[in-house]
Amino acid sequence: MDIMQYSYGAVQPAHCSDEEWALRIQLAHCYRLVDYLGWTEMIFNHISVRVPGPEHHYLVNPFALNYNEVTPANLLKVGLDGHLAEPSDYQANPAGFALHSAIHGARDDLRCVIHTHTTPISAVTMKKSGFAHNDFYGAQLFGRIGYHDFEGITLFAEEKERMLQSLGEKHILVLRNHGVAVCESDIERAFFLLWTVQRAAEIQVAGRSMGGEDQVLQDDVRQKCADLTQQLIRNDGFAVIFFAAIVRKMLKGLYQVH
User: Fold this and answer.
1) pLDDT score of 1
2) Where does the Class II aldolase/adducin N-terminal domain start and stop, copy by copy (predicted)?
3) Mapping DSSP to helix (H, G, I), strand (E, B) and coil, where does residue 197 land?
4) Minimal CA–CA distance to 11: which of 72, 65, 75, 85?
5) CA distance 252 to 38
6) Average pLDDT, the chain
7) Pick the CATH number of 3-255 from 3.90.930.60, 3.40.50.720, 3.40.50.2300, 3.40.225.10
8) What's the confidence (pLDDT) of residue 236?
9) Cα(first)–Cα(last) distance of the chain, in Å?
């Protein structure tokens, strides 16, 4: 059995194309991984991926389900207006529409968006200086982060344009005093980016709790690190390999899938 095709007991509906079903399986893996790693916020937050096609439909979690209850079949397909594109017994969380629909509607290069506010990430977003770039993971994020000032819960369409302006051409949107949205061309790259952001936040929080002066990296070293990371992810497939490895670890550990 190819465990990457493991569907958590869900059966492919007749109307669902093989391409979309494969995307649904991959997104279900991503939700389960976020739960497995302890990065969930109960039933809140979102991971979305755009479905191929001109409609800009995207898949997102059903509101009220835990991340470890998400399957390929119960994922919602919604439009940029937040309305369901296909019938479902569930509704989506309206707090996700402004952020996810804004990015999916404006950035064709960004097909997957992951929003979290883990404790270390949220702690870093409270600081005016934001993310530092003086450790192995933080250096990989150099030049890739946009910052958006807190306006409350992201419910309203009027905030979309301001969030897009804050993101610009970057791949990470820090929602100040809140959390982060990482955006990439596919699920594997988005998950790898989230992993990097999480590790950078963890190390920064730990480092700031210690006495002593930090060893500050120069911008040219930071840029070299960020550029090389992107080369490895895009040309050498590091993100794909990493995603498959951690999915295997999760499935074998939690579901005894071999």
Assistant:
1) 65
2) 25-205
3) helix
4) 72
5) 17
6) 95
7) 3.40.225.10
8) 82
9) 7
At 92, the pLDDT band (50, 70, 90 cuts) reads confident
Model pTM?
A: 0.96
Closest by CA to 122, choosing from 204, 35, 216, 34, is 204
Q: Where are the domains of the chain?
A: 3-255
Report residue 122 as tokens. 């949220």
Q: Is the pLDDT of residue 199 over 80?
A: yes
Give me the mean pLDDT over the 120-136 stretch.
97
Q: Is the pLDDT of residue 12 over 90?
A: yes
Residue 83: closest CA among 58, 64, 112:
58
d(CA 109, CA 97): 19
DSSP 47-113: EEEEPSSTT--EEEPPTT--GGG--TTT-EEE-TTS-BSS--SS---GGGHHHHHHHHHH-TT--EE
Residue 230 contacts by C-beta under 8 Å, 6 or more apart in sequence?
none
